[in-house]
Amino acid sequence: MAVFARSVAAAILLLSMTTFGFAANKVIIILDASGSMWAQIDGKPKLEIARESLRTVLQSVPADDEIGFMAYGHREKGSCDDIQLIVPPQPGSASAITDAADSLKFLGKTPLTAAVKQAAEALKYTEDKATVVLITDGLETCGGDPCALGKELKASGVDFTADVVGFGLTADEGKQIACLAENTGGKYIQASDEKALQEALVETVKAPAPAPEPAPAPAPAPEKPEFNFLPTALLAEGGDPVTDGNAWEVYKAKTDGTRGDNVTTEYGAYKTNLEPGDYIIVARDGEAKVEQKVKIEAGQVYKPLFILNAGTLIIHPRPSQGADVVDGAVVVIDYPGADMPATYYGTTKAVLPAGDQKVTVTIGQGVVAETIALAAGKTVEKDMIAGVGHVVANAYYAAGGDKADGSGIGFKIVKAKKKIDGTRDEVVYAYGPDSKFDLPPDDYVLIATVDLAVVEQPFTVKVGEFQDVKIAMNAGVLAITAPGASKIEIFETKKDINGNRKSLGYAYDQKYQAAIPAGDYVVVSEKSDNSSKEGTVTVKVGERSEVTVQ
Q1: Which residues fall within 8 angstroms of residue 520, CB to CB, at 6 or more apart?
Q2: Which of 39, 163, 309, 370 has its CA at a distance of 20 to 30 angstroms from the CA of residue 28?
């Protein structure tokens, strides 16, 4: 790692000797701030090597050399327009450049061709001698043609040179951008090859020194700030700025200091120009929020800091230890200062005010609750186990026969243990075939209903186990046709002591079909004139019986 860092430093120093120390012209250093700079070499990110190399080399550059600093890919992901001249060419800019490099975020694409073109234009290359030093660890990703640009800049410039440092590129990759330097009369240096760097350094040192350059021009006057309000939100004091998923609410402040009209709501990193006046600013991230009163005065720039005093809680709800997360699991978090608990589903990642978080996870009928301490700026991630078994229930007309899959199918689950009055606690119910239940470990009774047939079946649930409960209804299907009838009713054949038969089901129609326990039945059809007819029918297990009454 040390050898590689020295190689990069040597490459930049080489360019400083060929352009800064001898020529003393205006120079802009372009640093690749794309996301690939997070890649590591010998355990150290390339971006750190580049920062340290810049700091080392710039300390040895004469103070009167006018050096500028440009970067690309440091503000937006996926943007080919993210190019910024951060430090204009000026004497004594070494400290400003190193500070700028240290504050960069490396996250974007690699528009190196456009960046070199903008740097050349900033140096007025068609009027004055100009040099650009490009440090890149990747190839063009925004459709530019570096080779063609080199020819264009050389042809239209007074005395333009581009030197390119291939930072960790392979030899084949280097060939694709070396033409940018070669077409302008500059040098391409492979920073990953220490021997080649040393040879290039020796060759350059032996080159004759150019004539002294005139004194540098005075530094340009400071530009008027583009924005007057640049707030920063932190989860905890000393933490990194929050720039993703957060929100900013801007309100006019009333004379009594309370919120007035909403001016705007913005998201992520935020900077703007606010008209002079009194405001209330609310910073939010997840369930955490904090507000400040801000007085904006003309000509002033405000950079308030908002400390959310919050952390991040990640919950993985699982039915049993080692099982997959249940996406439909309900996660309720009663966090400090909440008007009402927040509800999430499945894997939950929430930013919450620091303090004790009362978390309840529900999967089916299984419930687990826990109080989790969350400190500001910290992340707590954990599994919460509801402790249930999974049950799928189906009804069959006969054991091993056809599955009941029509309407009128219902399942009710009750506790197996009866209360002192002989009743059982109802747990849950569902309708239709393949009804699913997540139940805590216990003994239960499944009550299955298919139209007029009702059967009970006990079963036991263990945590983490899957059960396919199949219940045989010992029933068939009775299909009745009664032309001209206004009502069809099914009775048991046996009469009670008073001579009455028990009614099992009816329909106000000329046709009636229902699943019914196997047995003998009487079917009565009634017409609108109160006349009636009856017939008998026998229903067999797993079979269809049809009868016409007229």
Answers
A1: 493, 536, 537, 538, 539
A2: 39
Model's pTM, two decimal places? 0.56
| Alpha carbons 245 and 349: distance in angstroms, whole number | 12
Summarize the confidence of residues 325-351 as an average pLDDT.
96
Angle between helices 146-156 and 112-122 (to 10 degrees): 10
CATH code, 199: 3.40.50.410
Other Cβ atoms within 10 Å of 414 Cβ, number = 18
Determine the distance from the C-alpha atom of residue 310 to the mean position of all C-alpha atoms in its chain, rounded to a whole number.
19
Instruction: CATH number of the domain at 494, please.
Output: 2.60.40.1120
Element spanning 43, H or E: none
Q: Which two tokens stand for residue 137?
A: 């660890």
Could you tell me which of 525, 529, 527, 526 has the C-alpha nearest to residue 537? 525
318 and 347 share a domain? yes
Instruction: Quick: pLDDT tens for 216-263.
Output: 877 776 677 899 999 999 999 999 999 999 999 999 999 998 999 999
Distance CA 269, CA 227 (A): 13
Q: Compute the distance between CA of residue 30 and CA of residue 146 in angstroms, rounded to an integer.
A: 14
Q: What is the pLDDT of residues 483-527, one digit of tens each?
A: 999 999 999 999 999 999 999 999 999 999 999 999 999 999 999
Provide mean pLDDT across the span 53-65.
Answer: 80
Coil, strand, or helix at residue 470?
strand
| DSSP-derived 3-state class of residue 535 | strand
Longest dimension (CA), the chain: 130
What CATH number corresponds to the domain at position 292?
2.60.40
Residue 153: per-residue pLDDT = 94
Task: Judge whether residue 38 has pLDDT over 90.
Answer: no
CB contact at 8 A, 12 and 133: yes
Length of the chain, in residues: 550
- Give phi and psi for 54, each to the nearest 5: -60, -45
Q: Which of 54, 64, 104, 63 is nearest to 84 (CA)?
A: 104
**Which pair of tokens denotes residue 161?**
């040179």
Collapsed DSSP state (helix, strand, coil) of residue 37: helix
Residues 329 and 462 in one domain: no
Distance CA 286, CA 351 (A): 5
